[in-house]
Each structure stands twice: as C-alpha cells, then as structure tokens.
Amino acid sequence: MAKKQFKAESKRLLEMMINSIYTQKEIFLRELLSNASDAIDKIYYKALTDDTLVFNKEDYFIKIAVDANARTITITDTGIGMTKEELDNNLGVIAKSGSLAFKKENEAQDGHNIIGQFGVGFYSAFMVADKLVVTSRALGSEEAYRWISAGADGYTIESAEKDTVGTEIVMHIKENSEEEQYDEYLEPYRLKAIVKKYSDFIRYPIKMDMTTQKPKADAEGEFEEVTEEQVLNSMVPIWRRNKSELTDEDYNQFYMDKRYGFDKPLKHVHISADGAVVYNAILFVPESAPYDYYTKEFEKGLELYSNGVLIMEKCGDLLPDYFSFVKGMVDSEDLSLNISRELLQHDRQLKLIAKNIKNKIKSMLQSMLKDERESYEKFFEAFGRQLKFGVYNDYGMNKGDLQDLLIFTSSKDKKQVSLAEYVERMPEEQKYIYYATGESVARIEKSPQLEVVLDKGYEVLYLTDDIDEFAIKIIANYKEKEFRNVASGDLGFEANENDDQSEAENEEAKELFERMSSLLDGKVKAVKASKRLKSHPVCLSSEGELSIEMEKILQAMPDAGGVKADKVLEININHEVYSALKNAFEQDQEKFGLYTQLLYSQALLIEGLSIDDPVELSNNICKVMV
Predict the structure, then answer these.
(1) pLDDT digits (tens, 9 = 90+) for 349-386
(2) Residue environment code for 381-417, b if the CB has 16+ CB neighbours within 10 A, otherwise e
(3) Dihedral sign for Cα atoms in the order 582, 587, 588, 593
C-alpha cells in the first residue's frame, strides 16, 4: 500500500513535537495509557444511550507486554477501537484529537471524563520508538486495520486480523545511543514505576506480566521465578472516595505512599470543590521542614492531576511562597493544558483554584492554632520563619493573611502567644504592644531595658528570630495598637514623680552628658539620664525606625552599606556608678574619660555589639584595677 504523508504543514512539525515538547521521555507511557483509557470511556458513553450495549466495568482493561529480545512494548486496550477512516483522521493529522471531538459531542456524566485532549500525545511514543504499529478494530465492525509509521516520513494503513474490539499499539524501541539508554523502557519494573507515578489513578486496570522470585513449594530455602499478571494501578484515588469512609491513617498512608515526606503530617484537609471551578485536593501540613527548605534549591508546589493523570509533579503556581511548606495534590478537569499536558496555561481556572487553596490553608492553620495548640507550636517551630518572611515580603502585601498566624514567646510564663491573645489581655491603660529583641529568650531576659516595662505589669513579646522585628515593623499596628521596642527612646509611659526627678537630674547633669557625648565622638547620638534603668548602670536605646537589633542583622549581610541605628547612651543616675562618674567629672577629667569609654563598651557588650578595639578595653579595665 502506498505511503501517505502526514496531514501537517511539514515533517518538521512532527520532529519538533517529538524532540521539544516533552521534557521527559518517560511521558510517552502516560500519554498512551490515557488514550487507552479514553477509548474505554467512549464505550461507556455509548452504553448510556444505546440499549443494546451493556457496560460491565470488570470486562475492560489495558494490558502492557514487553518483549526485550524483539525490543517491543505492546499496549492493548479493550476500548472502542478505530475504523480505517478514524485511523487516518486521528493518527494521520498531527495535533488532532478524537477524544476532544468525542468529548464535545458527549458531555461528561457520572464522573467519567475523557482524559486525552490532544492527539499530539500519541506521537510522544516516537521519543523512544523508531516504529509504531497500531492495529485496531472498531466497535460494531468485523474488520480490523493496521496503521504503520516510522516517523516523519509518513504512514501506511492496511487491512489486518484482530479477534476482539479495541486497539493494540506495538512500539519498536530505539537502540541505545551515547546520550540515551532506551533499554530501560524494556524493563518491566521501570514501566511499573512509570505507571505508578503518572497513571496510578486511571479507573481501569492496567495489567502486565511480572516475574518475581517465590519459594519453591517442595524445596525449603530454594526459590523459583514465577511470572504472574499484576494490576499495576490502584484505580480509585483517595481524593475521590467519600471523606466519611477515610481515617487519619488512610491520609497518613497516602502521605507516605506519595513520599511527600519521611515525617507524619500534623494536619490535613480534604477539599471537594464544586463551584466556579471543579477540583479535588488533599493538602498536608508537614511535621518537620525538609533539609533544603530554607535554601534556594527547594522547589515548592503541589502535584497536579487532570482526571487522575499526573500532569506536573510540582505546580508552584498553586501555592503562595509563604505557604510553600504545604504538601499534597490537586485534581481538576477544568484546567486548560498545553499540547504536552506538562505545562499549564495561566488561565482563570488555575487562579481560582490557587486562591481557594490559599484560603483553605489559612483556615486549616487557624484551626490548628485554636484547637490543636501543641501541634501548631510544633508546626511554627519548623515553618514560622516562612510565615514571618511572608509578612515582610512584597512590602507587607500579605500581612493581612498572615499576622493572625504569628506566635511569639511571651514574658508571661515563657509561653507562645498570638497577637490576638496578647491584645486581648492588655491592661486598659497600656498603649503599645511591647517587644524585646535578642538572640535567645535567656539573653533577652537579662536585658536592662526590659525591667521598667515588666515592672509596669506589661507583657513583652520576645523576638529571637532575625526576621521578627522586620515583620513587626511591616505590620506596624495590630487592632489599633502600635508596636514598641522596649529599647526605643519613648516607651509611652505617663510621666510620674520619678520621671520629673529624672528630668531635673538630666538638666543638672547636662554638661556632664554633653562631655560624655563629645568623648564618644559621634558613636552615640546623645547621652542622657535613663528613665528605664533600675538595677543596671547603663544601656543603649535607639531613636528612629532602625533598632539596634536590626542594625546587627543588616551589618551581617553583604553590602550592608554601614547602616547604623541612632544610639542613645542611657545612664542610671540612681546607680552608685553614676556617683563615681560625677566625682570624676568634677575632679579628674582623665578618669572621667576612662569611665565614659568603659560604660560605652559595657553597653555595647550588653547589646551583643562588637567592640571596636578589644585591646583598648582590656587596657582600660587594667587602669581601673590599679
């Protein structure tokens, strides 16, 4: 029979599809199995309107057979088959899909939906095969036909013999090359793995003969090879089962089976959406962060299925960055896919699903925070930093979604507290939400600046993560309460007698403080009597938006640009050290200069700031001792 040319504009189109459209060669099996599933679905559709047809699902299957010696893979289905004209039209026209046309004529019913929407999928077989032989017998026909092609040169169609209705595709696998090892596709266990990865939830059994080692019945300790037909796919995905029939163990097992992590999930949510966009999803909050979570190498995303067929292993567009820790899957029939089904068109449906998923994750976390506090605190220990970064990132655009999910260690019982809980128990006269920053809770508790706020009976949030204060600055205020660092210049306390006394003392010591400021040569913006110190002699406070802790963090970054907080050296005029300082100012200017440098160095050390000249500090201490 004369060879026909493909009804495409050029042979180059087929070559481009074979070599460029698909990122992984293993995809060919997904495409052919999806087409086979479609062919069975078509019989199901016809049975809905044709009383002469009885559809017994148990009678329908897909079979994979491997002949390594002949270098062939055969895929056989019990579907509707194709006539000679359909072979010519569906396989002779690149990018035409018989499934798509059929779907338009027969709307989906009873949850059965045509998977394949692009005829291009069939041609993916040429990525691993140099020849395809398709033998098909259509439903209601006694005749069969064979379609043969070796690629872009064209194809032939001839009469054939076939005892049963359906289609058989024989792939002649390419020889190995320096770049590719095609032999791997002749290994049954490799094909089984591909089926489990992409086609596990196709609703008809996918069968293949598998050879295993089994103990001999009559010989202890001896084994024999046994070849048995196995069903490779599970067929019914967990997300399509009734939620009331599923247990936590079922979801945990699915989490482990999909290798979402080696831990157990802390929480899951099962979504069955049927509105503007129809989809199913199962989302998990992991117990612990992957080893590479806080690195550039980490790739976020949910598994994406189209009618049970895996399309993308990690669809990043479904998750905002601040919820990138979420694992799970989404299955939808409404997505617009490109011809390879590997990439999504950025359409309205995808955005609707992503928005819905974001809201579901937020609700799930809020539920954990309210009802499963121990689990939530465990989650926050692993992923809280990501939520805080989400608050800070994009100029605070997402703070409204995230601020209620933040928790911090509180000065009250050293327990974790949310912003809502903090504000709810604030004394009526308290103006601000107070916080203190430091490398650890133990370090913060020793901070001199903390004393006066705690003595007022006010609760203080302990911020120990380097992103914390940046996030707090972005939030700015919560429920009309501004945030205030305990080390800031103005704590917002009402003036009292002690404050008046401090002001008087400050005026009296004005010349002394000016002299100290001069000696420190611009290292501090000012020196003043402290309103916050009680037992400590000295501390640093800051003025303006940049705190001392933020300065430390920024200075640790490359190209920090020498950013500095406006520091104020505060002296406790009720401390005995001040008396010694005052006497030195009046009687010994050299000693006064020595005391000034020591107090400044002491304040730097308390804040965890580096000393410019440790040798000078050591010498100054020695001078005091002698």
Answers:
(1) 889 999 999 999 999 999 999 999 999 999 999 999 99
(2) ebbbbbbbbbbbbeebebbebbbbbbbbbbbeeeebb
(3) positive
What count of residues does the chain have?
Answer: 626
pLDDT digits (tens, 9 = 90+) for 197-252: 999 999 999 999 999 888 887 777 788 889 999 999 999 899 999 999 999 999 99
Alpha carbon of 196 to those of 58, 202, 258, 301: distances in Å?
21, 10, 10, 20
Report the C-alpha gap between 43 and 620 in whole angstroms: 94
Give tens-digit pLDDT for 84-124. Answer: 999 988 887 654 545 455 455 555 444 444 444 435 678 88
Terminal alpha carbon distance of the chain:
112
- 214 Ramachandran zone, left/alpha/beta (phi>0; psi -120 to 50): beta
Kind of pairing between the strands at 144-149 and 129-137: antiparallel
- Could you tell me which of 337, 410, 416, 322 has the C-alpha nearest to residue 373? 416
Question: DSSP characters for 326-355?
Answer: -EEEEEES---B-TTSSSB---HHHHHHHH
Residue type, 491: L
What is the Cα–Cα distance from 302 to 315, expressed in whole angstroms?
5
- State both tokens at 51: 């009383």
Strand, helix or coil for residue 517: helix
Q: Within the chain, how many helices (H) and strands (E) appear? A: 20, 22
Across-strand partners of 569? 527, 540
Phi/psi region, residue 544 (left: phi>0; alpha: psi -120 to 50; beta: rest), is left
- CA–centroid distance for 524 within its chain: 44
DSSP 477-505: EETTEEEEETTBS---PPP-HHHHHHHHH
> HEC states along 409-476?
EECCCCCEEEHHHHHHCCCCCCCCEEEEECCCHHHHHCCCCHHHHHHCCCCEEEECCCCHHHHHHHHC
Q: SS3 of 143, please?
A: coil
- DSSP lists the bridge partners of residue 604 as none
Residues 6 or more apart from 24 whose CB is under 8 A from it?
A: none
The residue whose two tokens read 């508790």 is: 445
What proportions of the chain, in percent to the nearest 5, are helix, strand and coil?
40, 20, 35
CA–CA dist 380, 286 (Å, integer): 11
Burial of residue 485, with CB atoms counted within 10 A of its CB: 0-12 exposed, 13-18 middle, 19 or more buried: buried
Tell me the pTM: 0.82
Interior angle at CA 559, CA 554 and CA 562, nearest 5: 60
Pairing of strands 460-463, 538-543: unpaired
Do the Cβ atoms of 336 and 347 come closer than 8 Å?
yes
Helical (H) or strand (E) element with 284: strand 278-285
Strand partners, 112: 109
